[in-house]
Design goal:
- The protein is of the alpha+beta class.
- It folds into two domains: about 170 residues, FAD/NAD(P)-binding domain (3-Layer(bba) Sandwich); about 140 residues, Elongation Factor Tu (Ef-tu), domain 3.
- About 30% of the residues lie in helices and about 25% in strands.
- It contains ten helices and 15 strands.
- The strands form five sheets. It has a six-stranded antiparallel barrel.
- Helix 6 packs across helix 9.
- The longest helix is centred in the C-terminal third of the chain and has 14 residues.
- The radius of gyration is 27 Å and the shape is elongated.
- The relative contact order is 0.14.
Length: about 325
């Protein structure tokens, strides 16, 4: 960032944003590619293991079949729209299969299968959740409302913002929990994570007995949300007329909202792909295949998926750097 004079700022302690334009970061990456004479525009069609006949055809063997010197032992043949290339090492950095409209394909997974690697079934990750039809009928009108929540699935939980959409929920908290919660499972969402709602309601009942439940809740939560769940999660009346058991039920409804999903966003629109080349078959130091020497896999094509916040980009670059030291 300093080398290319890219001004940036930090938000929410861990999120970095370009102050001027993200185009600066893209231009910096392209400039670095230019330094090493990286070439664009090659459309890979197939990747095959090399054979003596293949090498002979490309002129890498003599007519008598004499092999090349030991320091160059061709192993891979890459067929592209601009010709055939052979190499002693191959780094597969094709990314995942999300956002095919941007050019993503399953080429990397096909190469891995071709060379005998096991593939963890790909699924969408860092994705929004689509509510059931029943929940969508009630909460669909809240599209555009955002609020801080604590969202959990099993032992995993995240405290961040949640955004209501026309079909479900989205936002950083939802994206991160989607790494662990497949569609069809149940999420637990605390809509008032900053305080103990039962204690707050009990205190307000003592201090403001004539205040209505809706009024007190609207001081803590978006009013549209409170109005939406009125008569579903609580009956609006003065706090003086609300029993201890009713207060507990109201607090439980907001502090442990249980939400199931019919389906998640598909791979076409998910931010990243979970699943991919099984990491148990790769070196954690070099990213090299433990099945095929000089074959490397890096980035999202591997079964490594990080949380939102740039971790997946960092993994792509870090794993690529590691492989580059050995390939």
């Amino acid at each position: 960032m300093k080398k290319h004079d890219i001004a940036y700022e930090t938000k929410n302690e861990t999120q970095l944003f370009c102050k001027r334009s993200s185009r600066e970061l893209l231009n910096a990456l392209l400039a670095e590619c230019g330094v090493v004479q990286f070439k664009f525009g090659y459309k890979i069609q197939t990747v095959d293991p090399s054979t003596p006949s293949t090498i002979l055809r490309t002129g890498r063997f003599t007519r008598s079949g004499q092999a090349l010197p030991q320091q160059f032992t061709p192993k891979f043949v890459v067929n592209t729209n601009q010709g055939e290339f052979i190499a002693k090492s191959l780094v597969v950095a094709t990314g995942g299969i999300t956002y095919p409209q941007l050019g993503a394909t399953d080429l990397g997974l096909k190469i891995a299968k071709q060379f005998g690697h096991h593939i963890i079934t790909p699924r969408p990750a860092l994705t929004s959740w689509e509510m059931s039809k029943r929940d969508r009928a009630l909460f669909g009108t809240l599209a555009g409302i955002s609020l801080p929540v604590k969202i959990s699935f099993g032992i995993k939980c995240y405290s961040d913002s949640l955004l209501f959409t026309h079909t479900g929920i989205s936002g950083p908290a939802v994206y991160n929990i989607s790494l662990y919660a497949p569609a069809g499972d149940e999420l637990k969402i605390n809509l008032c994570p900053a305080l103990n709602l039962l204690e707050h309601l009990t205190t307000q009942k003592t201090k403001r007995p004539q205040a209505f439940v809706k009024t007190v809740l609207s001081e803590l939560l978006p009013q549209r949300l409170v109005l939406t769940v009125n008569n579903h999660w609580f009956v609006d009346k003065p706090l003086t007329g609300v029993s201890k058991n009713e207060l507990e039920q109201i607090a439980q409804a907001f502090a442990c909202w249980k939400l199931s999903s019919e389906k998640s966003t598909d791979l076409k629109t998910a931010k990243v792909m979970a699943g991919g080349v099984d990491t148990r078959e790769l070196s954690s130091k070099t990213m090299e295949s433990l099945k095929v020497k000089n074959l490397y896999f890096v980035g999202e094509v591997m079964d490594v998926t990080g949380e939102q916040g740039g971790y997946n980009l960092h993994w792509a670059w870090a794993s690529g750097f590691c492989a580059g030291q050995f390939a």
